[in-house]
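Folding problem:
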Amino acid sequence: MMKVNSAIETIMSELKFQARSAIIEKYSATDADISEDGFTYTVSEVVKYRHPYGAITTDVILSSIYREMIYLCVQTVPLSLLESKGGTASIVRNLNSTWDIRTPNYPVAGETLDIDEILAQIAIYRTLSYLGVSAYTANAKELLTTYKEGLVVPTEDEASDSLAFRFSSDGLEWHDTYQSGDMYFSIGRNAQWGNSIPIGGGGSSGGATKFIQLSDVPQTYSAGKILKANASGTGLVFADEQAIKKTFLELNDTPSTYVGGKFLAVNSAGSAVVFVDAPAGGSGQDALVGYQATMPYDFGTETSKQFITLDENTTFSVALNADGLTPKMEKDTIYHMQVYPSSYLFSFSDTQIKKPASTPAFTGSEYAIIFNMMWDGDDIFVFNINSYN
């Protein structure tokens, strides 16, 4: 198929030649006196004559070529424009019960002329004749006669058998099978090829084969970066990776350093936790109390349902008050005990303490022992006993 650019160059070259010849014949001008485009005659930098062909633009040429292509669709049968009956393409005319002749595409620079090769040449000759170069009128007639004499309109079966495809990376150089990087394909019939079609549908760049070829992602890779949505939520961008918090102190709402012997509490603004002194108790809320080996432990001075932490090497007495009979515990109140025995043995020794038959034996290797205690007015019950290594 003839390229549109080739047709334009052929016509412009002939127009320049005709204009230059006319100027030389009329003014006996030298080549130095004729402009490079061949249309203007100048003496001492003064324009003496400009040939009318100099007013012909590319748009005028393309319009003339297209008009001649339509003329040829009426005068003969362009095989490359045959369209089966019932097709959706725009048609110039009905040919017979099998075929219509579709409307050719308007010529576009960089594409191919949408008509048979020999008819494209006839369109060029007729365009030159229309623009005033009458010498090509006879050439156009002769070629058209030759084309008609050799024309054989195929049957529908014959045409379908001759359909073919070709592929290209740039729309200029073609091959028969798809290759990586190809951006265009073309459909041919009877050795006549249609215009190039972008692979992927509608975009001049064809379908994307790489992530960075998409329209809403970065166009280049950035080593060590991570992907995240942009501020407007319309695409992806590369960004620095956020450091992952790995310790309690690295969190944004915790203390930056540990303080020995302190306890955690929520700050007055309710926005973070801070280290504070041990609570004195009595506020009606659960607390974590460190035991300092003062015996017997007076549960009555602490809030009910206490979480009590023991970490001393000593005996922890809960059974007796001043009269030796009543434990210093609130009746029917559950106390949650947390014992950290370190390397020391732990056991329940008082006969007044009632514990389950399945109470585990402790070896001194436990990290923590957790259990519940409750006094019912007669006995102290120990239950929910668990240990952690």
Summary: The radius of gyration is 49 Å. Confidence is low (pLDDT under 50) at residues 201-206, 280-298, 302-307, 319-326. The first helix runs from residue 4 to 27. Residues 278-389 form one domain.
